Amino acid sequence: MLGRTTAPSRPGARRAGVGLASGCTLLALALVLIAASRLPAGDKKDNGFFIGHDAEFEADADADVYAGPAPLAVKFSASTQHASGRVTYRWNFDDGTTSTEQNPSHSFRRHGWYSVIMDARDAAGHTYRMNLLLHAWRPKDWERLQAHRDMRIMRHATRELERKRERDAAASGANDAPADTGSTAPR
């Protein structure tokens, strides 16, 4: 239930497989490599190969904990690969607060589910989004859960998550803007 999902800003590039079945294949591969290395930087052609191309921009986000008793103190980290220039980060902690630090710390004061979103953007405009799902438990429920697996607590947490997702969907459909959903504490 808890974890990470990714959403790159553009679909994956096509890759062509090259078999090593014969000497002719190796010769053809060597000729392609030589021809590609002689192209000026601005004239690299895309024939479905990665030859002469920069790797695709990617980002990764992680948390030191994904679940625990409220208030849940979490240290987040982010990194990128194949970025063009400076990278900016934007974290949305799903409780009305944000951060632009690369590796922020945040405390989730109320119990409930939190969908934390990290957006990374490099100087060339490439973007990458990571979603992290965290749960801050009621302290008494966390203690009971650690002492023994109580399925009633797990079912209750699952219902909380379903209600949160329904509220998030209703809020985004109503105003087509990111909603401040906060935690799912009972009223």
In CATH terms, what is the architecture of the domain at 3-8 and 55-175?
Answer: Sandwich
Query: What distance lies between the first and last C-alpha atoms, to the nearest angstrom?
Result: 24 Å
For the record, the CATH class of the domain at 3-8 and 55-175 is Mainly Beta
Please state roughly what percent of the residues sit in beta strands, choosing from under 5%, 5-15%, 15-25%, 25-35%, 35-45% or over 45%.
Answer: 25-35%
Helix segment tally:
3
Indicate the mean pLDDT. 75
Number of strands: 9
The biggest beta sheet is recorded as: 6 strands, mixed
Secondary-structure element order, N to C: EHEEEEEEEEHH
In which range does the helix fraction lie? Answer: 25-40%
The helix/strand class is alpha+beta
Structure, briefly:
By secondary structure, the protein is α+β, with helices and mostly antiparallel strands.
Structure description:
The chain has 187 residues and is α+β, with helices and mostly antiparallel strands. It has a domain at 3-8 and 55-175: Immunoglobulins (Immunoglobulin-like), CATH 2.60.40. The chain is 26% helix and 32% strand. The protein is built from 3 helices and 9 strands; from the N terminus they run βαββββββββαα. It has helices at residues 23-37, 139-147, 151-175; strands spanning 3-8, 58-63, 67-69, 72-81, 87-92, 98-99, 105-108, 112-122, 127-137. Strands 1, 3, 5, 6, 8 and 9 form a 6-stranded mixed sheet that branches. β8 and β9 form a beta hairpin. The model is unreliable at 9-53 and 177-187 (pLDDT under 50).
